[in-house]
């Protein structure tokens, strides 16, 4: 009976029943019809038909063979037998199950993230048609379009069904009672929601008319935010919330699953560009989302939108200098970013670990097989067919995999908790992580694939050569050659896997170490940083905002325990990207790709951050207060524009405030992150700005503990203005370590996998060598009896293992070469694998191999010739 | 060789069915039963129902091919016909049968 028809039968047993029923009914009807034709009465005809057809259990007999039930019965029989067999060797069973649980669990854990974060489409209708549109800068980088560019994109394109603008600026101050909280918000144009395809769970969305200054006092809230922060107020719709210092009406609620523009956005307000932003084509601050028309591909859209962009750059060469194309990002990619690639690489590493556990299990099974050779031989002699034996064996493997799968689910659960903790909120779409059918199929699939892999690799050995021989020779001395080779190949494969993983991990650790030991240029100890957010509606002028900040700094500088305090618009490493061109009359024109970061500071910023001046002097009080113009530049800017000349005393004009004199050159700071070299930076007093900045970083140097210091700062702020919010409070060290959070997570995880791989390889080698030594005990005994020494035996054991370790190491180097290419995607700055890392990992592997060999080799030397030989 | 080779009784039924189909077009179960009865002058009386397990098994062995069709009286029925493998099987069975009957006959002669 072919498995296929059995399977078909299992899938549609009714169909078979009906067919047979039809056949039998026709048969009986035909007999009756013939009888009636011959003149019999209908009753007689029926009686005759029944008698002639007979009372055979047609159905049962026809289907018996096909019956899945019989097959299942046999399976259950095999399964019970397997369980009994496994229960008899608890050590073996436990080891195997633990190995499998580890391998399956690790894979399932990573896949849980991969599945929810990368494989699931976004919880929006036709999410694959959504994209983010940015302008392409000369170097290939992204820049959001300006408000006017956005209008042109809207009018001229034929590829998008709809589009909308949003803003990167995401802070919002919500006043609740006496407390002001900063929440993450989405500032979006009214058509944002229809473009994304989200429907409100209550109330309504923004009207087009509400995207105007004056009528924009409306907000939407996310359902779970309403439930927690707003206490699930049932009458929330129509209520007023105090947002950024003014009353806004809650008009609707969005579903908990809607996490745009950012994962943490809980409140949405209409995006209303300020007059200067709306009319200045050079003010690039409005990223766009779009929905492709059905049937339009991303490439088609890119072609058309880039053509529009090219026109815009020719039409407005000053505002859109060299912006000749657009960058389109599928929404999923935009949302997940590089996290997806990293997860994929981790999944591969996890799979390598799984393969190693399977190889280990195979080795264990082979060893066990050898000790069961007599049993198999006996069963074969008693008539068990080869197929039956293999099947019994596979059933046993399935049992192991099944138990391993259940235990692995536990490991996976713990693993996911661990991973989420490790990511610490840094994983996009973390809220969507959950169990679904695909995850279950994956886990079961992995387990079953494993069972098949180690089942089949060991099965042919089980029925392998010379069963009678095994019987005759009495058990274990006839260790089959094939089995021995199989075990060696398995060990070599494990060593190869381990070398690859350990090399990759070593390289990541090395690069990560280099990354974190980069000098930031900042005095990191005793430096607390935080964001300060002032309500826009209240601090409408630069003067008011500066007054507040200056008096806050003044109060903090006088507070006990505080050495100094200052404010900067963007904290180095944490934030960057406020940049533009400057004009220095008298210098040769610089390349068009030149730009410099702008920083505005209040208080003694350089002193607070511990950034030394390499030339000139610091700001003087009248410069900080705005009575006199002055600026400080960093070394890179000085070098880029002035070269060897002394920049002190030069005047910077154009986009900076006119006629700002360079008074000092500060040492470089890694303002854009540890992995990027310092760029040009221009530092100006905050008072030199005529537009207010309501989001600032406050830096405070103090020996006080962060919590105590925070209390002091909160008190001082509350004394000045209780509507000002404080958030993202972190010591500078934490800012730096957070900035390499992803690199740390990836390095940690890959190192863990490498550690596991190392353990597994060592364990595999240990297992095989223990077995080999046991097999060769008799030979060793004879050797000892004729005068071999312990050292000779040890060298024999070592020599035997050398081949497999050597082959494994060599194969591992091939693996190293192949993973070289994926490493850079894990950690920026990794260029490949350094020889040092590879050498180190080979060394580690060799050391592990030596450790794994100690016990078996010692056992060999302890052989007692008389005892061993007498046993035979 | 089929796995029921040594089951003589079953083998006999197989032989009869194969022979019946080898001599005619596709037949349904009742047709086969009628042919066997007619040829054996009603000597071989087999319960019609016992044909079906054999028919299904032989179809599964690919000795027979089964197709749904309609009888003269417009009833749905499955029509069986013999395949090339079936003809080979038939030849083998016939040979077996001859050997067996020969052996039994010789035994009866000498006993």
Quick overview:
The complex is a heterodimer of chains A (872) and B (111). Chain A is α+β, with helices and mostly antiparallel strands and 872 residues long.
Structural features:
heterodimer; A: 872 residues; alpha+beta; 4 domains; 11-stranded mixed sheet; 6-stranded mixed beta barrel; B: 111 residues; Arc Repressor Mutant, subunit A; disordered N terminus
Question: Your description of this structure?
Answer:
With 872 residues, chain A is of the alpha+beta class. Chain A folds into four domains: 64 residues; 210 residues, no CATH class; 308 residues, no CATH class; 182 residues, no CATH class. In chain A, 54% of the residues lie in helices and 15% in strands. Chain A is built from 30 helices and 23 strands. In chain A, the strands form three sheets. In chain A, strands 13, 14, 15, 16, 17, 18, 19, 20, 21, 22 and 23 form an eleven-stranded mixed sheet that branches. In chain A, a hairpin with a 2-residue loop joins strand 4 and strand 5. In chain A, helix 6 packs antiparallel against helix 16, helix 25 packs parallel to helix 29 and helix 26 crosses helix 30. Chain A is globular and about 110 Å long. Chain B has 111 residues and is an alpha+beta fold. Chain B has one domain: Orthogonal Bundle (Arc Repressor Mutant, subunit A). Helix content of chain B is 57%, strand content 14%. Chain B has four helices and three strands. Chain B has a three-stranded antiparallel sheet with strand order 1-3-2. In chain B, helix 1 packs across helix 3. The N terminus of chain B is likely disordered. Chains A and B meet through helix 2 and helix 4 of A and helix 2, helix 3 and strand 3 of B.
């Amino acid at each position: 009976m072919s498995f296929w028809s059995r399977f078909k039968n299992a899938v549609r047993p009714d169909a078979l029943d009906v067919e047979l029923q039809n056949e039998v009914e026709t048969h009986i009807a035909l007999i009756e019809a013939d009888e009636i034709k011959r003149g019999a009465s209908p009753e007689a005809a029926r009686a005759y038909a029944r008698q002639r057809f007979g009372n055979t259990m047609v159905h049962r007999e026809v289907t018996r063979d096909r019956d899945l039930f019989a097959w299942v019965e046999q399976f259950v029989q095999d399964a019970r037998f397997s369980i009994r067999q496994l229960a008899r060797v608890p050590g073996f069973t436990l080891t195997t199950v633990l190995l499998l649980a580890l391998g399956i669990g690790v894979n399932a854990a990573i896949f849980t993230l991969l599945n929810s974060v990368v494989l699931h489409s976004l919880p929006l209708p036709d999410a694959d048609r959504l994209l983010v549109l940015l302008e392409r800068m000369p170097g290939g980088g992204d820049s959001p379009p300006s408000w006017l560019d956005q209008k042109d994109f809207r009018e001229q394109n034929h590829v998008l069904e709809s589009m909308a603008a949003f803003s990167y600026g995401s802070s919002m101050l919500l006043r609740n009672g006496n407390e002001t909280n900063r929440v993450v918000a989405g500032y979006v144009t009214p058509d944002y929601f229809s473009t994304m395809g989200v429907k409100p769970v209550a109330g309504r969305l923004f009207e087009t008319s509400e995207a105007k200054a004056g009528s924009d006092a409306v907000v939407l809230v996310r359902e779970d935010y309403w439930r927690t922060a707003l206490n699930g107020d049932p009458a929330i719709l129509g209520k007023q919330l105090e947002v950024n210092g003014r009353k806004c009406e809650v008009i609707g609620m969005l579903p908990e699953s809607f996490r745009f523009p950012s994962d943490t956005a809980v409140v949405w307000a209409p995006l209303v560009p300020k007059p200067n932003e709306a009319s200045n084509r050079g003010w690039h601050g409005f990223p766009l989302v779009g929905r492709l028309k059905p049937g339009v591909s991303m490439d088609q859209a890119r072609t058309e939108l880039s053509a529009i962009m090219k026109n815009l750059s020719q039409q407005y060469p000053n505002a859109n200098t060299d912006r000749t194309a657009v960058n389109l990002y599928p929404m999923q990619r935009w949302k997940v970013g590089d996290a997806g690639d990293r997860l994929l690489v981790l999944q591969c590493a996890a799979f390598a670990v799984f393969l190693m556990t399977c190889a280990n299990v195979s080795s264990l099974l082979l060893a066990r097989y050898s000790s069961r050779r007599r049993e198999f031989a006996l069963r074969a002699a008693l008539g068990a067919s080869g197929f039956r034996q293999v099947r019994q064996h596979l059933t046993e493997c399935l049992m192991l995999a099944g138990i391993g799968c259940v235990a692995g689910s536990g490991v996976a659960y713990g693993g996911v908790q661990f991973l989420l903790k490790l990511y610490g909120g840094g994983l996009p779409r973390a809220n969507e992580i959950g169990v679904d059918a695909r995850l279950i199929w994956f886990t079961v699939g992995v387990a079953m694939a494993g069972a098949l892999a180690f089942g089949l690799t060991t099965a042919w050995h089980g029925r392998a050569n010379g069963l009678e021989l095994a019987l005759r020779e009495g058990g274990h001395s006839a260790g089959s050659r094939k089995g021995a080779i199989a075990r060696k190949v398995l060990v070599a494969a494990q060593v190869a896997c381990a070398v690859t993983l350990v090399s990759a991990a070593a390289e990541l650790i090395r690069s990560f170490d280099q990354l974190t030991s980069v000098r930031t240029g900042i005095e990191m100890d005793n430096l607390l940083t935080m964001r300060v957010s002032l309500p826009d509606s209240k601090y409408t002028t630069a003067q008011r905002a500066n007054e507040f900040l200056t008096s806050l700094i003044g109060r903090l500088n006088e507070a006990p325990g505080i050495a100094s305090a200052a404010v900067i618009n963007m904290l180095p490493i944490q934030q960057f990207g406020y940049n533009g061109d400057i004009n220095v009359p008298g210098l040769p024109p610089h390349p068009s790709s030149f730009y410099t970061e702008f920083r505005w500071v209040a208080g003694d910023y350089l002193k607070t951050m511990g950034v030394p001046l390499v030339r000139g002097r610091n700001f003087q009080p009248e410069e900080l207060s705005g009575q006199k113009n002055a600026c400080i530049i960093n070394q890179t800017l000085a070098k880029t524009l002035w070269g060897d000349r002394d920049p002190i005393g030069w005047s910077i004009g154009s986009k900076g405030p006119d006629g700002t004199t360079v008074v000092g050159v500060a040492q470089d700071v890694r303002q854009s992150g540890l992995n990027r070299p310092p760029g040009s930076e221009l530092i100006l007093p905050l008072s030199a700005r005529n537009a207010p900045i309501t989001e600032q970083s406050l830096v405070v140097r103090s020996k006080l503990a962060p919590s105590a210091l925070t209390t002091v700062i909160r008190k001082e702020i509350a004394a000045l203005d209780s509507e000002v919010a404080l958030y993202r409070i972190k010591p500078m060290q934490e800012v730096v370590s957070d900035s390499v959070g992803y690199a740390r997570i990836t390095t940690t995880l890959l190192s863990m996998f490498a550690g596991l791989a190392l353990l597994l390889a060592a364990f595999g080698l240990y297992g095989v060598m223990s077995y080999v030594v046991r097999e060769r005990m008799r030979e060793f005994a004879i050797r000892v009896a004729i005068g071999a020494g312990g050292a000779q035996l040890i060298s024999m054991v070592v020599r035997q293992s050398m081949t497999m370790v050597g082959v494994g190491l060599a194969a591992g180097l091939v693996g190293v070469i192949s993973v070289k290419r994926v490493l850079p995607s894990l950690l920026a700055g990794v260029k490949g694998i350094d020889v040092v890392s590879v050498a180190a990992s080979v060394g580690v592997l060799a050391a592990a191999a030596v450790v794994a060999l100690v016990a078996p080799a010692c056992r060999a030397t302890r052989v007692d010739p008389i005892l061993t030989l007498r046993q035979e | 060789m089929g796995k029921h080779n040594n089951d003589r009784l079953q083998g006999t039924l197989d032989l009869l069915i194969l022979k019946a189909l080898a001599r005619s077009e596709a037949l349904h179960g009742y047709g086969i039963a009628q042919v066997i009865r007619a040829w054996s002058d009603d000597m071989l009386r087999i319960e019609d129902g016992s044909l079906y397990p054999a028919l299904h098994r032989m179809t599964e062995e690919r000795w027979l091919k089964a197709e749904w069709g309609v009888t003269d009286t417009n009833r749905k029925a499955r029509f069986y016909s013999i395949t090339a493998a079936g003809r080979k099987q038939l030849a083998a069975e016939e040979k077996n049968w001859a050997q067996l009957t020969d052996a039994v006959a010789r035994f009866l002669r000498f006993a």
